């Protein structure tokens, strides 16, 4: 039974990561495709240089697809802003998490005898931080080497068995590196806020983390009494407990949800995980479709260019180039401040202009 919530939580986590990586792949393909356009615009508009003749054919969008080029350039600008937005959310969450943890841990105290005996029995030595606080705090923090923080008031308010059950719950968060997973999911949630259904999926993941830790902390829900009593007591002492949850901070705050209480009281109760909503399915389909479109966009546009401008047009005197120069120009585009004159057997002199 342990694998039920844990398995569903893992599926939810990898699904959220998958959506994010597909979206990043889409942005990467988009930026890769429009890079030649930006390079061309930089040399011709900003530096005032003139490109070699064949460079025009490396950037067909500018002359053959003006509306598409404008649209893709707009998407490129949005993609660049979006990447900076992701970096901003990442740095912001890291700084807020570090600030919160440092502020809380600054009140660290020695382990009380009651806590020390439980910690020793659970093998959590050097992984517990006890703080002198009047709040009912207990949470897991840290990405690579996570630890558990617990307040003195919480230690005093619960029995030894209840304390053991709570710490066992947090130990499972620690062993599963849940703070790191929660951090990644919250970054994706905030970055892809415009995708319908993703916020619901992230909320289900948070609930799944708690249910999975409860199941493993109660021996497959066979010993739920101590943990359920501890949670009910904490609710009585702090009615605003769940209002402290902050998606900007990567810690597993103590939360007492209705699903957790129902699961602990009625072991036959099975919370429903709804991974795909109609809006989310439509969003995923759009993302995948755009990825395929942009992945093949260069080939499609190149084919269109060949139809509109056959290869024979290169020999009509408009932009004549010798075969050796053609092969050379296919590997790179060079830009000259002055127009480049090319001598060919067909004419004494022709300008690329």
Describe the protein:
- With 353 residues, this protein is of the alpha+beta class.
- It has one domain.
- It has 14 helices and nine strands.
- It has helices spanning 2-46, 55-58, 61-64, 66-105, 113-122, 152-157, 160-175, 178-191, 198-217, 225-237, 258-265, 278-295, 297-308, 323-329, and strands at 50-51, 108-109, 128-131, 138-141, 147-151, 251-252, 335-336, 341-344, 347-351.
- It has a five-stranded mixed beta sheet, with helices on both faces. A two-stranded antiparallel sheet has the order 1-7. It has a two-stranded antiparallel sheet with strand order 8-9.
- A hairpin with a 2-residue loop joins strand 8 (341-344) and strand 9.
- Helix 7 crosses helix 9.
- The longest helix has 45 residues, at 2-46.
- It is elongated and about 75 Å long.
- The termini are far apart.
- Mean pLDDT is 75; it is low at 307-332 and 346-353.
Summarize the structure.
The chain has 353 residues and is α+β, with helices and mostly antiparallel strands. The chain contains 14 helices and nine strands.
Question: How would you describe this structure in keywords?
Answer:
353 residues; alpha+beta; five-stranded mixed sheet; two-stranded antiparallel sheet; 61% helix; disordered C terminus
Write the layout of secondary structure elements.
Blueprint: H1 2-46, E1 50-51, H2 55-58, H3 61-64, H4 66-105, E2 108-109, H5 113-122, E3 128-131, E4 138-141, E5 147-151, H6 152-157, H7 160-175, H8 178-191, H9 198-217, H10 225-237, E6 251-252, H11 258-265, H12 278-295, H13 297-308, H14 323-329, E7 335-336, E8 341-344, E9 347-351
Parallel strand pairs: 3-5
Antiparallel strand pairs: 1-7, 2-3, 4-5, 4-6, 8-9
């Amino acid at each position: 039974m342990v694998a039920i919530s844990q398995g569903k939580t893992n599926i939810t986590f990898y699904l959220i990561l998958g959506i994010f990586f597909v979206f990043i792949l889409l942005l990467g393909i988009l930026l890769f495709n429009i890079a030649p356009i930006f390079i061309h615009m930089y040399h011709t508009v900003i530096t005032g240089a003139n490109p070699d003749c064949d460079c025009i054919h490396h950037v067909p969008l500018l002359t053959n697809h003006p509306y598409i080029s404008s649209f893709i350039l707009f998407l490129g600008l949005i993609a660049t802003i979006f990447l900076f937005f992701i970096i901003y959310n990442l740095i912001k969450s890291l700084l807020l998490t570090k600030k919160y943890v440092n502020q809380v841990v600054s009140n660290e105290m020695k382990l009380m005898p009651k806590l020390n005996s439980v910690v020793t029995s659970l093998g959590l030595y050097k992984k517990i931080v006890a703080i002198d606080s009047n709040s009912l705090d207990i949470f897991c923090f840290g990405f690579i080497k996570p630890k558990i923080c617990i307040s003195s008031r919480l230690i005093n308010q619960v029995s030894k068995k209840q304390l053991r059950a709570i710490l066992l719950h947090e130990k499972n968060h620690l062993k599963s590196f849940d703070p790191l997973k929660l951090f990644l999911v919250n970054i994706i949630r905030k970055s892809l806020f415009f995708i319908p259904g993703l916020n619901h999926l992230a909320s289900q993941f948070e609930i799944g983390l708690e249910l999975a830790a409860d199941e493993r902390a109660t021996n497959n829900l066979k010993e739920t009494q101590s943990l359920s009593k501890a949670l009910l007591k904490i609710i009585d002492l702090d009615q605003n407990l769940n209002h402290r949850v902050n998606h900007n901070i990567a810690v597993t705050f103590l939360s007492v949800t209705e699903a957790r209480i129902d699961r602990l009281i009625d072991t036959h109760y099975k919370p429903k995980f709804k991974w795909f909503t109609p809006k989310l399915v439509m969003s995923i389909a759009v993302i995948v479709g755009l990825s395929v479109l942009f992945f093949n966009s260069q080939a499609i546009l190149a084919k269109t260019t060949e139809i509109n401008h056959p290869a024979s047009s290169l020999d009509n005197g408009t932009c004549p180039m010798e075969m050796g120069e053609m092969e050379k120009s296919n590997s790179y585009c060079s830009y000259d401040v002055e127009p480049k004159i090319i001598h060919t057997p067909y004419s004494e002199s022709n300008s690329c202009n």
